[in-house]
Amino acid sequence: MSRPAAFARLVGAAWVLVRADALIPREIDPALPPPVRPLARFLRLFSGPAARRGRPGERLATALEQLGPAAIKLGQVLSTRADIFGRTFAEDVSRLKDQLAPFPTETARAAVAAALDQPVEALFATFGEPIAAASLAQAHPATLLDGQKVAVKVLRPGIEWRVGQDIEVLELAAGLVEDTVPAARRLEPRALANIVSRSLELELDLRLEAAGASELREVMAMDAYMRAPPVVWAGVGRRVLTLGWAEGVALSDPAALEQPGIDRRTLADNLVRAFLAQALDHGVFHADLHEGNLFVSPPGMITAVDFGIVGRLDAVARRHLAEILWGFLQRDYMRVAKAHFDAGYVPAHHSIEAFAQALRAVGEPNVGRPSGSVSMGRLLGLLFEITALFDMHLRPELVLLQKTMVTVEGVARRIDPEHNLWSAAEPVVRRWIMRELSPVARARELASDGVKALQALARLAEAPPPVVPVEQRPAVSRLWWFALGAAASGLAFYAAALVGRHP
Hints:
By secondary structure, the chain is an alpha+beta fold. Helix content is 54%, strand content 8%. The strands form three sheets. Strands 1, 2, 3, 4 and 5 form a five-stranded antiparallel beta sheet that branches. Strands 6-8-9 form a three-stranded antiparallel beta sheet, with helices on one face. Strand 2 and strand 3 form a beta hairpin. Helix 3 (56-67) runs antiparallel to helix 4 and helix 12 runs antiparallel to helix 13 (333-343).
């Protein structure tokens, strides 16, 4: 699609929102700053019949559904933030998670046969009508020939073309924002658009999702917080994915939390701890944990599905994340500030003491309080002001982590309005800190450094010596180099002995 065509689609998207009175809905007029009200009234002159029907969330959901997969993904995130936008709005938008219009079952059967290169009957004894339809795909209940119940995910027809168009429009919009709104540049709109675009592209190959589901199933099995259904590899193709049946009730169904024996607090705790354990302990996490992808059963078991978006953190990012969370849990704001500076999140020319003071202003009124008593809108506003004061830029490599943390907190709050996020996080973060930053861990690190030093010396010793005239040779003989190697070896073995004594 050409740039003019992408620009036309962007204008068209704005027009759809204006016609539905979903861009600056009339219901928020009293909260608008006085300079914005004339613009809102002007835009409302162009609203259509749909603008007079339904609540703001209902109108927005309808408009986003018209605009395609990328817009629907945005709506899914908004639906998790009842604390910011209100419960009614969140519930109205939540239908975008898995209640979109399905495509015909016969079309799905044909897609399965083409993707697996065999008739549907060769693998499935039954293949039912769709039970959930989302922006990119829909799910069908089925049974294998051996009687095992499974869920079959099938991509929507022509979705690759639609996503490609959305990506071009998204990248154009990001570029326009970055070029015309200087205040938004620190949010790195282009980098953010690239991350979102890449994740959408990866979601269009269900073989990759199958691999992510398999990996995360192994990771989740190491804790009891969350589980994932097994992959049926015989039923996997580029446009088709078959998983074991997820037990429980979808969290997007109001009946899920009304099941006898459901423990809301345990459920919310398990969700938060599952996400943190995946991210901190393993560096890989399910990055799309909205209610439509979570099935729950008493008392607090969660089964996750839809592994199209998998987030990853390297060892350095995991360490900084743990340091920041632990610092907030301990109200050690200097430690949090130091972690930000060490990671390069805050430019070095700023005062670390001043940044710690600013973090205290955010943390003290909120850490340890139940989520229901904290105004997330006010907290986000304060954080945004502080990050602007200290020139903090959005970290593109952390976009999925930040987005998932926002989603997880929103879902936990909907499960248990009095949920304490910090209390839920504490055991997982403490476990990581004790394992990775304890004296024993530091001894292991020293031993590893010693081994690396010995390896480097060995490579140096194996290299042919340069031909140097006698008069230019250094006074230090090779004997000294062997002595240095022996000393490094001794340090390494000493550190290893310490580890052996203190497991």
